[in-house]
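Let's practice the habit of predicting before peeking. Look at the sequence and jot down your guess about where helices and strands might fall. Then scroll down.
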Amino acid sequence: MNELTMTVVTVAIIAAIPLLIFLIGLATAAVMYESIFGKRYEIYETPLLPDANDYPDLLSEPVTFPSDKKYKYTGCYYYDRNYKEYKGLIIVSHGIFDGHLSYLPEIAYFASRGYKVFGYDNTGCHLSGGKNIRGLPQSVIDLNNALSYIKTQTELPLLLFGHSWGGYAVSAVSCCCDCDIKGIFVQSGFNRSIDMLIEEGTRMVGSAVKAFAVYIKMYESLKFGSRAKLTAAQGAQAATARGTKMMIMHSTDDETISLKNSVFSNVTKNDNITFVAVKNKGHNSLCSDAAIKYRRKLEDRFIEEYHGRGTRRQRVMFYAEHGDKKRYHELDGGLISMAADFFDSACAK
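Done guessing? Here is the structure:
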């Protein structure tokens, strides 16, 4: 090999190094991303999952509706048997790795206040189709699809209720949907997908995950296109500019979604937005103080009994024997009433 050839080869190798680093970084980000979002999350086995039978006056009507892919979503209309007419329709967007059944306490309460409620499961979650949950922007896509279906089925005023992943969805959906939404209640939502990926990744593996932030962001953009860039702040601005009312609630001690990355801290205040800061509520800010204390006590008791090594099956058996579903899911009467009052006011405008 002559000197010129060696020089060309050396230059080619040096030039290829940045590309190789880029491909390795992107591939690593893809593996990390899909390890979390590339699978389904079925209804988890627990004796404490709320059930419609727990609420004697709550009636339900299951439905399916199409996605923008080949699978179908499963949802359900809920209403109180004591009402024949309804103030509006509240659409519930659930938290990640979960489904709408976990929100039956809130659903039953809103129904008891004269609302029809629509709960559905996101892509890859519980009763809906889809091979996996895809990623954080998917909750906005799912809500947009739900709204496209709902607006052809009812003339009731539309309202949104979202928690966590769903809090992001109900806030950001107005970036891509121009439905006439009267009111949006946001509970413990986050503002931007990439911020939450880095925040949670740091909790899981440490600050080293920040080195892959650019690759994670790029991979999500490749997967979701422009929808990867949607933020709660942008959606809130678009919605409230059209006259939609918003109430945004967050607990200052939320360790799942930090105040820094929350909808609460990133939305610019205007006359159509009400901020509600609560304390010592963690991520489930509508739970009563007694319920929060009871959940911690029950979990501590389980850990103590099995010396921190209890299996999933042992947890199910323990909660079946010692758990009290009513105490576990008790709502904060003042806060849930505030949410319903907010919807009343939004419908009245």
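How did you do? The mean pLDDT is 93.
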